[in-house]
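Sorry, any thoughts here?
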Amino acid sequence: MRFFLISDNIDTAMGMRLAGIEGVVVHEREEILDTLHAAMEDKTVGIILMTEKTMDLVEDEVNELRLTHPEPIISEIPDRHGTTDVTASISRYVKDAIGIEL
């Protein structure tokens, strides 16, 4: 199983590549969705990492995929321009998924 990155930022993609994580840089909603669905179909991908901006553009679809597909795991990561509180994002996901507020 491997990681796969969906990023809107070339710097984040390059940093992840240095860590051995392949990915793509996309900016438009449709590009993100196409890339996400392709990564979901790739049986070698175990974890999909998405930057905040890409996640914001397709959040409803990602939440639906998380609820209906146990694999791969989809995780939001901050990038250097990030402003999202990752803890709040995880708490919101848990609340949506199982109805428990942390």
